[in-house]
Write a structure and sequence with these properties.
The protein has one domain. The chain contains four helices and two strands. It is mainly alpha-helical. The radius of gyration is 18 Å and the shape is elongated. The two termini are 18 Å apart.
Length: 115
């Protein structure tokens, strides 16, 4: 796995399910213990037009993208999340060997994500 593969996997297996799952769960809250707030949001979403629902989905996309981008910035060392001096190393280990996905000499993961 290289940087591009990793970012594509994030988009396919984290970003897309987070957006779709969040919207689906907001429309039809799962489980037996649905809160009054979840019910209220579900009723509100059901009252919206198709265009308005598209706006809500866009906001979910923006929120998920911002969270992933921020996380990748922390892995890249451009956003501090601790007062300690140090860096994160994201290593993919496989039968083929180890691959450092956020090496200082490589492209930033957050930049690849935004491409």
């Amino acid at each position: 796995m290289n940087q591009d593969d990793y970012i594509q996997a994030i988009k396919d297996y984290i970003r897309k399910p987070a957006i779709e799952g969040s919207y689906k769960n907001a429309i039809t809250p799962p489980g037996n213990r649905v809160t009054p707030q979840q019910k209220e949001i579900a009723r509100w979403l059901a009252s919206l037009s198709e265009k308005e629902c598209q706006h809500i989905q866009y906001l979910l996309e923006c929120a998920v993208d911002a969270a992933i981008f921020g996380y990748l910035c922390s892995l890249d060392g451009v956003t501090k999340i601790t007062n300690e001096s140090g860096m994160f190393h994201l290593i993919f280990k496989s039968e083929k060997g180890d691959c450092l996905l956020n090496a200082e000499s490589s492209d930033y993961l957050h930049d690849i994500y935004k491409q």
